[in-house]
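Regression check, pyridoxal-5'-phosphate case 411:
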Amino acid sequence: MTDFPSSHALFQRASAVIPGGLYGHTQPAATLPGVFPYFAASASGARFRDVDGREYLDFMCGYGPVVLGHADPALEDAVAGVRSRGLCFSLPSEPLVELAEELTRRIDFADWAVFGKNGSDMTTWALQVAREATGRRKILHIKGVYHGVDAWITPGHGGIIPEDRSHIHSFPWNDADGAAKLFEQFRGDIAAVFVTPYHHPSYAASEFAQPAFFPRLRQLCDEANALLILDDIRVGFRLHNGGSHIPFGLRPDLSCYCKAMANGYAISACVGREPFRKAARQVFLTGSYWNDPVALTAALYTLKRLETENIPDHLERMGQRLAVGLKTAAAEVGLGFELTGPGTAPYPIFHDDANLFKIQKFCAAALKQGLFFHPHHNWFLCAAHTEGEIDEAIERAKPAFAEAAAREGSR
Ligand SMILES: Cc1ncc(COP(=O)(O)O)c(C=O)c1O
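Current build output:
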């Protein structure tokens, strides 16, 4: 007997008409099959309800886009007027220009900006800009990184031919020597190196860059006239209002943003330096919905709120409070637990948990306490997580840690 009859019934219907029932990161296999609900019904602030009417304190925030809080009333007011005047014009509208002006104002190295709808739109376009700017083929990236769903980089296997990847090469995080070897091997043919501001793989702890890593990559790119591209899609504007390259001291040539730009409205961006404006103009860029004035206005509004309310600072403080509280609660029942990575996007690990059994048990038990934690993906905080929500989460997590510890002991 399932705790989620409506979720399961919807999944049965989905399985008849959608290949695999659900796909991507929302498919049941990506969390804990049979343990998590599959469908949400509504959300507000830091909470959401599933289709069976259960409410959760949400620590996934739509996998990152929700940075103010679900259904933020002031944001919805700000976009309501724009929405009422039409969604999809035959020409672009003023917010397109305003948002490009805003990004070039707040991002110190940005001289221009373009927009898409999803992160993958921008990483693939940035790859093409690098090839256009350099006339070269090779792209380097970090092993195990996620840059989107397109053939050059998707973690999936279906529909890929070897040629899709024949000029894509990887090196381990923090291994500048590994990157240098590839620069040597493909001398004169490297168009760009993709990096993320810190390493945030699934199924493993988040890892920051060693002090010499980014400077050395910058030097390798400069010496070879290759571009350094920052994929800041996961945490861009969550860590710093000017982009994540600032706290980590990185100097990119192009940078891609998406998730936290517009509190859930669909928009992504790529910004770049002046020398790459010509190449950017040459690479065709369009989409049916890419000039949507509602998403552009939502981005203008969200970015402004992030700055005027200093939300990145709030997210870090709330994340640190959660980290300390959960670690202490785990220690009380004899478990070693920590949140890795920045406070705004913490990744959970138990010590001595090579098979990830403990984290799965804990997240399953936490779900029963009304906490939506993911066992294998970084979590996300939003501005609606106040001290009250964080302390509530820590209290609710206590029985979940006890359950994880008891089950572990009884194995
Ligand atoms: C670092 C990073 N790059 C690219 C993407 C792809 O973005 P999207 O799913 O919007 O295409 C993601 C999405 O999770 C991401 O985290």
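Comparison notes: The chain has a mean pLDDT of 96. The first helix runs from residue 5 to 17. No diff flagged against the previous build.
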